[in-house]
Write a structure and sequence with these properties.
By secondary structure, the protein is of the alpha/beta class. The protein has a single domain, classed as CobE/GbiG C-terminal domain (Nucleotidyltransferase, domain 5), CATH 3.30.420. The chain has a 5-stranded mixed β-sheet with strand order 3-2-1-5-4, with helices on both faces. Helix 2 links the parallel strand 2 and strand 3. The protein is globular, with a radius of gyration of 12 Å. About 45% of the residues are buried.
Length: about 120
């Protein structure tokens, strides 16, 4: 399973998500598998339906260690990157980050990509 995790601000649109996703996908190397799921925190799942992939709700991302760190994310959600933490949590135990967070052109959304075995 390949999961695109998202974090986004309240003003984000479907285009914000698509932009962040495209930027993250441009950095996938040596991965022939397609993205199979998208994920974010439970309160933000509705906007993900615009991406036409199965959406996974992550109840909490607090405490999940991420390689990048947004001070705003750390204060608001207890993790350095909601996108990275959501991707890792949705990928399940043993999941690994393939692509760290990338920011959309309008700077309202981030996307990271993880690989895991669970669905």
């Amino acid at each position: 399973m390949i999961v695109a995790g998202f974090g986004y601000r309240s003003g984000a649109t479907a285009e914000s998500l698509r932009s962040a996703l495209a930027r993250a996908q441009a950095h996938m190397q040596a991965v022939d598998a397609p993205i199979t799921h998208v994920a974010t925190t439970a309160d933000k799942v509705p906007l993900l339906t615009a991406l036409d992939l199965p959406a996974l709700a992550v109840e909490s991302v607090a405490g999940i260690a991420t390689p990048t760190c947004s001070p705003a994310s750390l204060v608001a959600r207890g993790t350095g990157s909601v996108a990275e933490a959501a991707a890792l949590a949705a990928a399940g135990p043993g999941g690994r980050l393939l692509v760290p967070r990338h920011i959309s052109a309008d700077r309202l959304a981030t996307c990271a990509i993880a690989e895991g075995a669970s669905a």
